[in-house]
Specification:
5-stranded mixed sheet, 695 residues, 35% helix, disordered N terminus, alpha/beta, 5-stranded antiparallel sheet, Rossmann fold, globular, 22% strand
Length: 695
């Protein structure tokens, strides 16, 4: 008897076939086979199971399950796995997992990162070993300042001793509130050497947010510098100025403070859905494992230069700062003003002989645009890493068209997992439509699971979760949110597991692929943003009774407010700026009498997103002059907005513009305007008038 619940008339071209005997007693009636096939199809993604009925047929004949498939869609290994899933679904219809024991072992063991024994050293101790080997070599450069390994080490030791003299004990939290400079580097090392926990704070962050961060972290000490204390009003933590630490006469030799592998190294705060930022706590073992993975996979060696470009509160800033100094290389700190001036940035990378560089994909697009307009030879650059946003295949194509000899590394990870956990280092454009996240780095285990933490079939979509040395301790002083995201690894009792909320799947080549988020968390300018945190801040604005935030075109935040009387959009944005960093303040604010609701009474976010896009189309007045039309075309290019939706009275930053997109605008206009011009003349008609007068 033959039962074929899923078939299409006509022959299959390029046929492959896989047969597997059915155990005695296995149901083979049409209803059972249909149910099994339906379950398997539901569990698998189209990329694995075949895009249509013409790609796959399952039949049972004489006690044998036969799977016939289009060879161009499935390979033999995938066909064998799918046949096995059918066998499990038939023989064990109540079993939660379709995976065989062999595939379960394969996913848990073979797809993990290679095991490496970590040195019994912390990051700062590996740095100290390098100081002993070449004290007079240059360790760090910022503009015209150059510090040798010996000088950097001595300054860090003096800061560490100044903290100890003030009573610092193991795992006391130390906020470092400084600009990105050489003294910041010394302060970070000094905190680690003294056994403290590094907490980065950007000096320009709103004082209210800084106060909440310090309070949540239980911060005991603040290390800062003159000119960076504006956001520190009201803090009870003891404050140490770096110049004071240098002047107190402390010894410059190594402290020798014992620091355990499981001791906290740092806390990075990310956006939180309850209205309060979450402070992810990571330990020294995960920290050193990550930095060594960067050294190995990006090929950082002695005498190599690594560019430090990321803001302090972006976790990638830490490996950028210290990785080179663990192997005898050099850190080049590139200031934010230079980063925002793309031509100057590219010149700095060339002049500084940078070997390894990491940027977000949107910034790499700006770099490529600049190289297209003014080509330069990137003679020393060997590897560029992109992170913080999903990278598109088209960008990879453009990169290798411009720089075919320079590797491109797609880095993926989360703050809670000691930063990056996966590297896909490419020397050519990858196959397929998506750029993979690559394989896990050493000592990191990644699973793709269902809601019950059961691994899903290879190729099927599921939540990406992490186990191993990379997993942090949880969120500081936040047991509820820690319990929601951190748990015990069910496959390795006693080890921590982190649920990321990211969705992904395993490709046939054993590399991870990112499919999106399962919640309301989004990436804005490379930063993780919880929509809920912004909405909670909205509700604290006087006069706002209800509020919602949606993402327009994937890059712009739009807020909707409701209440008895309208509150001006500028007032709402100004109030939000008191407690939120600039990248979390919505570009536009709309007022409504009430927010639309779904049938079950929840805010209708789909309707709000559509409304925001419609409102976005209602630009104020069509461009009139040739200069205005030219500028509208340029705005459309950098903002991702149709040109016919841009009006002459539109405000660049209210339309979703940022400092980075203003830089891209200047490049698109052949540098006829500068970043400062866009800031001073953000209205299209005004900027067009400036362009016309210069012409």
């Amino acid at each position: 008897m033959e039962t074929a619940p899923h078939r299409t008339p006509g022959p299959l071209p390029d046929i492959g076939e896989y047969a597997i005997p059915l155990p005695a007693g296995t149901p083979t009636d049409p209803a059972a086979l249909l149910a099994a096939h339906t379950r398997v199809r539901a569990a698998l993604s189209d990329e694995t199971a075949g895009a249509s009925g013409a790609d796959l047929r399952v039949t049972v004949t004489d006690g044998t399950l036969r799977l016939r498939y289009r060879a161009g869609v499935l390979d033999a290994d995938a066909a064998a796995r799918i046949a096995g899933y059918h066998l499990t679904a038939l023989a064990h219809p109540d079993r939660r997992s379709l995976l065989s024991e062999d595939e379960l072992r394969f996913q848990l063991e073979e797809l993990a990162g290679p095991v490496r024994e970590l040195p019994d050293r912390r990051v700062h101790e590996l740095f100290e070993e390098r100081v002993g080997k070449h004290p007079d070599a240059v360790a760090a450069v910022q503009d015209d300042r150059r510090w040798t390994y010996a000088e950097l080490n001595s300054r860090a030791n003096r800061i560490g001793r100044a903290l100890l003299a003030r009573g610092l004990t193991a795992e006391d939290v130390v906020a470092v509130v400084m600009e990105r400079n050489l003294d910041w580097m010394a302060a970070v090392l000094g905190v680690l050497k003294a056994g403290g926990v590094y907490l980065p704070i950007e000096p320009h962050f709103p004082a209210e947010r800084v106060a909440r961060t310090l309070s949540r972290a239980g911060c005991a000490f603040v290390v800062t510098e003159e000119g960076s204390t504006g956001s520190l009003s009201g803090t009870s933590a003891e404050t140490l100025f770096v110049d004071t630490a240098y002047a107190e006469g402390h010894a410059g030799d190594d402290l020798g403070i014992p620091v355990r592998a499981d001791q906290l190294a740092y806390i990075y705060f990310t956006s939180g859905s309850t209205g309060e930022p979450k402070g992810a706590m990571c330990e020294h073992a995960g920290f050193v494992n990550h930095v060594l993975a960067k050294v190995e996979d990006l090929g950082i060696g002695e005498d190599d230069v690594v560019a430090q470009t990321a803001p302090q509160c972006f976790d990638i800033s830490l490996w950028q700062l210290l990785a080179a100094t663990l192997v005898g290389g050099r850190t080049l700190i590139i200031g934010q003003e230079t980063v925002l001036d793309v031509p100057r940035f590219v010149d700095t990378v060339v002049r500084g002989r940078v070997h390894v560089l990491q940027v977000v994909p949107s910034y790499l697009e700006a770099v490529l645009a600049e190289l297209g307009r003014r080509p330069r030879e990137l003679a020393d650059l060997r590897c560029v890493s992109v992170t913080g946003e999903a990278v598109k295949r088209e960008l990879v194509q453009r990169w290798f068209a411009v720089a075919p000899g320079i590797r491109l590394a797609n880095a993926y990870g989360l703050t809670e997992t000691s930063d990056d956990t996966n590297h896909e280092v490419m020397d050519r454009v990858p196959d397929g439509d998506r750029v993979p996240l690559g394989r896990p780095v050493r000592n990191v285990r990644v699973y793709v699971v269902d809601e019950d933490l059961v691994p899903v079939p290879l190729g099927a979509p599921g939540e990406i979760v992490f186990s191993g040395v990379c997993v942090g301790r949880g969120y500081v002083n936040d047991p509820e949110r820690t319990a929601a995201a951190f748990t015990t690894d069910p496959y390795r009792p006693g080890e921590r597991l982190y649920r990321s909320g990211d969705m992904g799947r395993w490709r046939a080549d054993g590399k991870l692929e990112f499919l999106g988020r399962r919640d309301t968390q989004v990436k804005i300018r490379g930063f993780r943003v919880e929509i809920g945190e912004i909405e909670n801040a909205l509700l604290r604005v006087d006069g706002v009774r209800d509020g919602a935030v949606v993402v327009v075109r994937g890059t712009q935040l739009a807020a909707f407010c409701a209440g008895p009387e309208p509150v001006a959009a500028d007032t709402v944005r100004a109030r939000l700026a008191v407690s939120l960093p600039s990248y979390m303040v919505p570009a536009v604010v709309h007022w409504r009498q009430r927010l639309p609701l779904t049938a079950n009474g929840k805010t209708d976010r789909r309707a709000l997103t559509a409304l925001a896009e419609d409102l976005d189309a209602g630009a104020a007045g069509e461009p009139v002059t040739a200069g205005e039309r030219r500028l509208a075309d340029a705005w459309a290019e950098v903002l991702g907005v149709p040109a016919d939706r841009i009006g002459r009275l539109d405000h660049f930053f209210d339309r979703g513009g940022s400092s980075l997109s203003a830089v891209r605008l200047a490049i698109a206009l052949d540098r006829a305007v500068t970043l400062q011009d866009v800031v001073r003349h953000p209205v299209l008609a005004d900027l067009a008038d400036l362009l016309d007068r210069r012409s």
